[in-house]
Amino acid sequence: MVIIIFPTKAESRLFIKKLSRVSKPKTIKKERPFITKYEIKGKEFLVMVTGMGREILKAVEAIPPGEGSLIILTGVAKALNQSLQVGDVVSVKSVKKENEKSIIDIPLSPFPRLQPVTLVTCDRFVFHSAEEGDLADREGYYLAQRIKNLCIVKAVSDKEENIEFLNKYCQNGKSNIKGLLFSLSKKQFITLIKFFLNSRLARKKLSDFLFKNLC
């Protein structure tokens, strides 16, 4: 069995759409973490949508015992290394928590052709970080602490965009979209549109890669 973990529905949507074209989905769990099961060419897939940040830990409790020879945490992430480009799909070789020294190695890499990168996990929307690392997300470190047979595959969704203003409107896994839209300046609105378009490209690249290499 392959277990694929997405933090958000938006990140999972395109991949689930691809799976559903070739396999009838079976809903296992209708509340977070949402779990859907597929069978393709005799191989079973569990797709889990967990929520962002520490909410990812709910996935650990929901993983069927004794199953999951391959567990993949995936989704989009911000590039701290500016040599990475929007849409690049990469494999994480190590992860650390922002402002902490402990580093967790991720030795499992079923996709050897992917560029290996380092990941920094932050407890906020990450658009600037002083940490040394290639990527930044909100979940990787927490899951790596709890799961040994873990692979992390990420797609680059943004680079230089300064959208830290989102932190004020996106907290504890909830978004105040109405408050955000009423407060945006013209410059912030243009930046946000660019970010959404880049994120959409990254999600497409990621879903294409996962479907091609797993199914």
Task: Report on this structure.
With 215 residues, the protein is of the alpha/beta class. It has one domain: 3-Layer(aba) Sandwich (Rossmann fold). It is built from five helices and twelve strands. Strands 5-9-8-6-10 form a five-stranded mixed beta barrel. A two-stranded antiparallel sheet has the order 11-12. Helix 1 runs parallel beside helix 5.
Could you give a short description of this structure?
This protein has 215 residues and is α/β, with parallel strands linked by helices. It is built from 5 helices and 12 strands. It has helices at residues 9-22, 58-62, 140-146, 177-183, 186-214, and strands spanning 2-6, 26-29, 34-40, 43-49, 70-79, 89-97, 103-105, 115-121, 135-137, 150-158, 170-171, 174-175.
Main attributes of the structure:
5 helices, 215 residues, 12 strands, five-stranded mixed beta barrel
SSE diagram, text form:
Layout: E1 2-6, H1 9-22, E2 26-29, E3 34-40, E4 43-49, H2 58-62, E5 70-79, E6 89-97, E7 103-105, E8 115-121, E9 135-137, H3 140-146, E10 150-158, E11 170-171, E12 174-175, H4 177-183, H5 186-214
Parallel strand pairs: 1-4, 1-5, 5-10, 6-8, 8-9
Antiparallel strand pairs: 2-3, 3-4, 5-9, 6-7, 6-10, 11-12
Helix pairs in contact: 1-5
The N- to C-terminal Cα distance equals: 12 Å
Uncertain residue ranges: none
Shape: globular
Instruction: Return the string of H and E elements.
Output: EHEEEHEEEEEHEEEHH
